[in-house]
């Protein structure tokens, strides 16, 4: 407080401090003398209070005695009011604080110099007001339940109930209504003191349509305010100060990376809370495979009924929320990718390896690559085989322990016997073993002898064999072929 300036008390404070009678106090208030300066100004001009309605000799004597006690302060008070608009504005603020919150003039005076120098500590002031406003129990809950203070341990509802001799349910009821009650009480006051914004010196991350309070902003505010509060508290405070222009959508008890105040025009159109909670749900739900979302189409689903304005501005705000809260960026197509959040299973690692190499691989080759990349420690070959077989995306090539992706249409799957059946089904007549081998060698490394032996061992009777090395299918009718090539006989 500036010691050269006497305290300009509210008349109600003088009523208590100087034991002023109720009649004398009411006469002053009824005649627009709600503070010491106005009271002394009237006395300097008239020298008596008898001209005031309901003021008799006794009350006049009482008021004159009070005026004489403080008359030496008049010149200093007058100099202060004459000095400039800033002092008068602060006095207006001080009187309102007393009338609204019973904040004493002496308490308010501690903020005068900072106010005049445009570095008013709004949050110190706010905490002082809230402390004056609340009872001990409610202020304890305010300090220990909402995560507003970094150095205050959170108390459970039961612990609060035990401390103040109330039930857990009663403690819960108080918690649920406390912040709305504080805001409802402070907002009309904030409307009257909207000029305070011109006396602040905060470096806020203030954008066109929103204010973002992150850890850096919180640290900056704590330093200049000499407090130890959280981002949540600062957002709560700014939501009161700026309530005519900005709205706050985040829940009181939920943890957030950043806190946002959204321009009211956008807030009235769009349900930011529903958008945030839905995106959070998507990120926290088990996602086995990443997927894309058309961001603009997604945004449209959260408009309030009958509203659809400021679309581009809302999209930009939502992009920033998605980025800052969930590390989600829109791609060139304005899509966000909801990433996989489950552990990659062994057979999926094999799928990635096959896709990366772009060719079929033998079990041993896959095994060695997994060990080299340290994908899994102490892996067993048979466990790897079982994992591969369990994959719906991987096919076995014959009985060779070679594997390929089913999506590879250029890769023939199945055994040599199955490939021969497929080849013979495509041809009208039996085919020579040399032609069969040439075809099979596009997909398998083998020779005529191996193929012939393999087919001869078929226990299902799928094949017929002709002299000269021709082979056909028992399911097909080769009568025309046999009549044309009479020299070929079935073996």
Question: What this model shows, in words?
Answer:
The chain is an alpha+beta fold and 491 residues long. It folds into four domains: 188 residues, no CATH class; 134 residues, no CATH class; 60 residues, Arc Repressor Mutant, subunit A, CATH 1.10.10; 69 residues, Arc Repressor Mutant, subunit A (Orthogonal Bundle), CATH 1.10.10. The protein is built from 25 helices and twelve strands. A hairpin with a 4-residue loop joins strand 8 and strand 9. The radius of gyration is 42 Å and the shape is rod-shaped.
The total beta strand count reads 12
Any idea what the radius of gyration is?
A: 42 Å
Q: Strand share of the residues?
A: 5-15%
Instruction: Output the strand order for the largest sheet.
Output: 1-2-4-3
Secondary-structure class = alpha+beta
**Cα end-to-end separation:** 119 Å
Bin the helical content.
Answer: 40-55%
Q: Which blocks of ≥5 consecutive residues have pLDDT under 50?
A: none
Mean pLDDT: 88
Total number of domains: 4
Specify the biggest β-sheet. Answer: 4 strands, antiparallel
Shape: rod-shaped
Number of helices: 25
């Amino acid at each position: 407080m500036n010691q050269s300036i006497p305290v300009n008390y509210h008349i109600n404070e003088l009523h208590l401090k100087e034991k002023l009678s109720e009649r004398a106090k009411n006469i002053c208030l009824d005649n627009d003398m709600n503070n010491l300066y106005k009271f002394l100004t009237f006395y300097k001009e008239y020298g008596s209070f008898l001209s005031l309605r309901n003021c008799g000799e006794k009350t006049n004597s009482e008021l004159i005695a009070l005026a004489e006690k403080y008359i030496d302060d008049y010149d200093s008070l007058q100099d202060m009011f004459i000095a400039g608009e800033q002092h008068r504005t602060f006095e207006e603020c001080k009187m309102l604080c007393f009338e609204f919150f019973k904040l004493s003039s002496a308490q308010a005076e501690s903020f005068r110099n900072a106010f005049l120098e445009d570095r008013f500590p709004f949050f110190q002031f706010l905490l002082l007001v809230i402390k004056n406003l609340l009872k001990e129990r409610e202020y304890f809950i305010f300090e220990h339940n909402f995560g507003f203070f970094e150095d205050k341990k959170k108390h459970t509802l039961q612990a609060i109930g035990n401390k103040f001799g109330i039930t857990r349910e009663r403690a819960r009821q108080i918690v649920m209504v406390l912040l709305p009650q504080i805001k409802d009480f402070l907002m009309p006051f904030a409307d009257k003191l909207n000029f305070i914004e011109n006396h602040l010196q905060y470096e806020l991350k203030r954008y066109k349509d929103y204010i973002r309070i992150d850890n850096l902003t919180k640290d900056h505010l704590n330093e200049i305010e000499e407090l130890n509060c959280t981002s949540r508290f600062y957002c709560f405070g700014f939501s009161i100060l700026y309530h005519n222009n900005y709205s706050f959508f985040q829940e009181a008890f939920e943890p957030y990376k950043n806190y946002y105040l959204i321009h009211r025009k956008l807030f009235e159109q769009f349900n930011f809370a529903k958008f945030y909670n839905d995106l959070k749900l998507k990120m926290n739900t088990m996602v086995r495979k990443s997927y894309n979302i058309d961001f603009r189409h997604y945004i449209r689903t959260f408009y309030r009924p009958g509203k659809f304005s400021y679309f581009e501005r809302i999209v930009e705000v939502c992009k920033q929320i998605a980025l800052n809260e969930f590390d989600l960026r829109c791609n060139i197509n304005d899509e966000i990718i909801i990433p996989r959040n489950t552990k990659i299973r062994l057979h999926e690692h094999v799928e990635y390896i096959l896709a990366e190499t772009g060719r079929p691989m033998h079990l041993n080759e896959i095994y060695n690559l997994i060990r080299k990349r340290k994908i899994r420690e102490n892996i067993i070959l048979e466990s790897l085989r079982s994992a591969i077989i369990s994959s719906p995306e991987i096919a076995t090539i014959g009985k060779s322990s070679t594997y390929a992706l089913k999506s590879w249409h250029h890769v023939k799957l199945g055994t040599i016997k199955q490939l021969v059946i497929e080849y013979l089904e495509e041809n009208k007549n039996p085919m020579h073993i040399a032609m069969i081998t040439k075809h099979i060698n596009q997909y398998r490394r083998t020779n005529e002898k191996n193929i012939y032996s393999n087919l001869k061992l078929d226990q299902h009777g799928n094949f017929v064999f002709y002299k000269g090395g021709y082979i056909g299918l028992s399911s097909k009718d080769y009568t025309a072929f046999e009549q044309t090539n009479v020299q070929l006989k079935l073996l």
